[in-house]
Amino acid sequence: MSLHADYSPMMETDSKPQVFVTSESKRFSPGSVRCRFLVIFVAALGIIALTLIILQFVVHKNTNTKTTKLPDVACTGDCTITLVESIPENVAFPKGSIHNPSIYSGWKNLLKMATKEIDIASFYWTLRGDDTNTSDPSTKQGEDVFQSLEAAAERGVKIRIVQSPPSKTFPSLDTIELQKKKLAEVRLLDMTRLVGSGIIHTKMWLVDGQHFYVGSANQDWRALTQVQELGLMTYNCSCLAEDMSKIFEVYWDLALPKSKIPDPWPDKYKTSINADSPAQIKINGSNAAGIYLASAPKQLCPPDRADDLSTILRIIDSAKQFVYVSVMDYFPTTLYTENRTYWPVIDDALRRAAFDRKVKVRLLASLWNHTRPDMKYYLQSLAALNGANDASVQVKFYKVPPFSKEIPYTRVNHNKFMVTDSVAYVGTSNWSADYFTGTAGIGYVINETETGNTVRAQLQAVFERNWDSNFTISVNCNQ
Ligand SMILES: *[C@@H]1O[C@H](CO)[C@@H](O)[C@H](O)[C@H]1NC(C)=O
Ligand SMILES: *[C@@H]1O[C@H](CO)[C@@H](O)[C@H](O)[C@H]1NC(C)=O
Ligand SMILES: *[C@@H]1O[C@H](CO)[C@@H](O)[C@H](O)[C@H]1NC(C)=O
Ligand SMILES: *[C@@H]1O[C@H](CO)[C@@H](O)[C@H](O)[C@H]1NC(C)=O
Ligand SMILES: *[C@@H]1O[C@H](CO)[C@@H](O)[C@H](O)[C@H]1NC(C)=O
Ligand SMILES: *[C@@H]1O[C@H](CO)[C@@H](O)[C@H](O)[C@H]1NC(C)=O
Ligand SMILES: *[C@@H]1O[C@H](CO)[C@@H](O)[C@H](O)[C@H]1NC(C)=O
Ligand SMILES: *[C@@H]1O[C@H](CO)[C@@H](O)[C@H](O)[C@H]1NC(C)=O
């Protein structure tokens, strides 16, 4: 029995949309004196109640200007947040450069800590060398993660995985095996059925309602040793983890074959944590930060959930000194529509920042054997603004140096992050229209009020290390 036997993307939905039925209000006919007394009594009660409510409102207003939509329980607390990276084998940065713990070590920490449950939202799975017919020592870390997942399941940890439906290119043999061995429950999120196109491109782990990972690394052994990746580990953070679980539950429930995007959204998916009311977190017991999680595409966002695109725009629009962007692919267009269309939504925001507000813009895109040849034109076009009206716009390619091993689909900078003078943003999406209109992804925003050794400062150091490295090629408009 294969994991996907019972799955048909063509399956028609027959589940009824949720409807709130309000019972028709009963007409009141004043038939008796008893009844009239009752009316007066109820009316009096009503007036008293109303007075109390108004009084409370007035008192409340005096002490707190925010009277509407207070979160049920404020999201506050101490959390440990660690920037993690995969640096490809045989890539070295100069001594003294920032060096972060590996994504592998972060995942291993999660696997060690898990006692109850592990939820993973993923695109595809190739954690083992066999999955790609690779025999090389650098597959070891991925294989170790796979075995540790099995071991966790065997000691009773409940594992749930949501991923894109497998394809020829991405058969995801790992999760088929986990499912067969009854070590994980696996669901397939069919974005095409739900929103008309796209995939789930999220890379997220959530453990015991306490700890989570978000970043660029796929469930792929190559993402640990042969591809440059960046993510954030968040430990001991139940309140943000609960918010992350709401994003996971959206995927999980929508991955049922007959699911529909709810309208209206039931409360269990809703959040009150967003740009306007971020979680108030103390990072590592010292850095006060406003934090929130964004989700893409917008169709998967219940009310008040920040959507990833608006979040990116808001961060660019609020930058005062600089915006540094590191994304694998940058296209102010659609890529996967039948006819490509121009989509300068993010591009315009970057140009506005540079041109209108003199914010220093730097964009680092990735160059590898599979880079679409037309990306260069959009990068050149952006770079062409440099100097106009005193705008500062610099654009570079980052090319992971080659290595003697010939491993397909490796040696690339897969990072997707942005850092400004006030905010650190780590995402899972390339910057093209498709990633925001139909593809599932997550953005993680950290807005620290302090300076010093912040996550933001560390992310800036990563950007500058890559930018100043020997692995970049400047993009000029006359190349
Ligand atoms: C690995 O090799 C087997 C047998 O030659 C082949 O069937 C399979 O398609 C290969 N898988 C990949 C990912 O190349
Ligand atoms: C999480 O909290 C536990 C219990 O307080 C502590 O032992 C552990 O070191 C913490 N882990 C991290 C990564 O902060
Ligand atoms: C960061 O927080 C400050 C207030 O602490 C706020 O003014 C600013 O808009 C926030 N930035 C973003 C991008 O959310
Ligand atoms: C794509 O472009 C072709 C040629 O211009 C046109 O015939 C077709 O209808 C377009 N398709 C869509 C979906 O717009
Ligand atoms: C990329 O292409 C070059 C030139 O065709 C080739 O030498 C190199 O092996 C390729 N690298 C990878 C990782 O496929
Ligand atoms: C975007 O990112 C993914 C990996 O996260 C990569 O495999 C894909 O080819 C990228 N580019 C485009 C143009 O979609
Ligand atoms: C927080 O503490 C962890 C564990 O000691 C460390 O790895 C991480 O870099 C710290 N984060 C910041 C922002 O300093
Ligand atoms: C770049 O390469 C040159 C020559 O190999 C070396 O001297 C220099 O230190 C390198 N710079 C960085 C930032 O790695």
Task: Give a structural overview.
The protein is α/β, with parallel strands linked by helices. Helix content is 29%, strand content 21%. It has helices spanning 33-63, 103-113, 140-154, 173-180, 191-195, 222-225, 238-254, 308-318, 345-357, 375-383, 434-437, 455-467; strands at 76-86, 117-121, 125-126, 158-163, 185-188, 204-207, 211-215, 219-220, 229-235, 279-283, 287-296, 306-307, 322-327, 360-366, 393-398, 416-420, 424-427, 441-448, 472-474. Bound molecules: 2-acetamido-2-deoxy-beta-D-glucopyranose (8 copies). Residues 338-339 line the site of one 2-acetamido-2-deoxy-beta-D-glucopyranose. One 2-acetamido-2-deoxy-beta-D-glucopyranose is lined by residues 94, 468-470. Residues 196-223, 409-435 form the PLD phosphodiesterase domain.
Flag low-confidence runs: 1-33, 57-71
Report the end-to-end length measured between terminal Cα atoms: 55 Å
Number of distinct beta strands: 19
Largest sheet: 17 strands, mixed
Small ligands present: 2-acetamido-2-deoxy-beta-D-glucopyranose
Per DSSP, what share of the residues sits in E-state strands of 2 or more residues? 15-25%
Number of helices: 12
Rounded average pLDDT:
88
Fraction of residues in helix: 25-40%
Overall 3D form: globular
Helix and strand content put the structural class at alpha/beta
Radius of gyration: 25 Å
InterPro entries: Diverse_PLD-related, PLDc_3, PLipase_D/transphosphatidylase
Keywords: Membrane, Transmembrane, Transmembrane helix
Transmembrane segments: 37-59
Organism: Porites lobata
